């Protein structure tokens, strides 16, 4: 029995120096990837799905290189994680240096300064200039859970409101906050108590309802069905990610926030997918001057190392008893070293501006397609977080089958695009901010060609 499935003779080193090209040397997936996929099926839980079974050996800039030697254009960033690029040199250097110093102590046993510096940085760059505190965790879901715990402790209330189309994670509490049954919830109940769902603003599908009007509808439902006095927190993605890159109508978030303030409800912004320059602002809340009470961050925070955070008003974050919040690995020193290098890169390389440029290219090209192809029902998003919603051109109904065909055809041509949406009919673009214009345009041309022929 061989333990290693014939690795390539030379494994390229990742990072931006990797040749920035789309290069197909086998069909997708190639033979070595297919062999690994067979081993995956035999060894890994079937519940762990794979979107595109090409097995990666290196990544950097705007490409991923697979074990068969194919170089694919990356328009997904590992779901909005590698904003600074894969194996970004500064991140590699910082993690390598930390690796040689110490790998783990548990911050709540014997602390270290990088955790504090990450907290100070997040307190500075998140919306609002009030006094803030931060706590670090490992995954987006874990941070969401802790934000809810902290809000409950602070308010002494239990109910939590989440929205239609929301995605907040896969743990029991966060799965309960997540809206979509398949594949996230089906068979995994019972769900957490005191979680309530409220209507979202979804301009394409609510007749373009005014944002303030949509918020009043939501508030009325909350008041009637839950009662503000029972509500600890309202959690919302300022642009919904998995739900379909839904940008609420202007005024929706601000009206909800004002109601939360007036009623002592903690407003939690889940910026796990939208955070860190992605939308052409450091945080999506910044576009509408929304200052959340708590903000949840993960994904883009540490260049691919697992780290997440909750940052918020000092009086809320300081409410839990000492020892009430924690975890073995939260704010691990390797992840903190990566985060400090990553966060500095967003600022020093002005990646907010780069995300805007990427957004201009994406929306320009996608709107040009929409002008003649009525199956593109919507082009939406902000910055480097843009999606198209595919519909039946006659009825406007969601077309999930078309969406799957387009994504599969793009994959076969060496372009990694992701789908999303409650109705499975959204193709989303989340390129690393380190991608070149040429690669981005080439990737878009492949998707356009796939759509034209689907
Ligand atoms: N909140 C807004 O987008 C993760 C899910 C991938 P974790 N989104 C990608 C998958 O299929 O599991 C996400 C998010 C928002 C929370 C989360 C959860 O973050 O790091 O995956 O736990």
From TrEMBL:
Catalyzed reactions: 4-aminobutanoate + 2-oxoglutarate = succinate semialdehyde + L-glutamate; (S)-3-amino-2-methylpropanoate + 2-oxoglutarate = 2-methyl-3-oxopropanoate + L-glutamate
Pathway field: Amino-acid degradation; 4-aminobutanoate degradation
UniProt keyword annotations, A-Z: Aminotransferase, Pyridoxal phosphate, Transferase
Annotated source species: Cryobacterium algoricola
EC numbers on record: 2.6.1.19, 2.6.1.22
GO terms of molecular function: 4-aminobutyrate:2-oxoglutarate transaminase activity
Cofactors, names only: pyridoxal 5'-phosphate
Entry keyword annotation includes Transferase: yes
Region ranges (Disordered): 1-22
Keyword Glycoprotein: no
Protein name per the record: (S)-3-amino-2-methylpropionate transaminase
Superkingdom field: Bacteria
Pfam families found in the cross-reference section: Aminotran_3 (PF00202)
Matching NCBIfam families: GABAtrnsam, PRK06058.1
InterPro entries assigned: 4NH2But_aminotransferase_bac, Aminotrans_3, Aminotrans_3_PPA_site, Class-III_PLP-dep_AT, PyrdxlP-dep_Trfase, PyrdxlP-dep_Trfase_major, PyrdxlP-dep_Trfase_small
Family: Belongs to the class-III pyridoxal-phosphate-dependent aminotransferase family.
Catalytic class of the enzyme: transferase
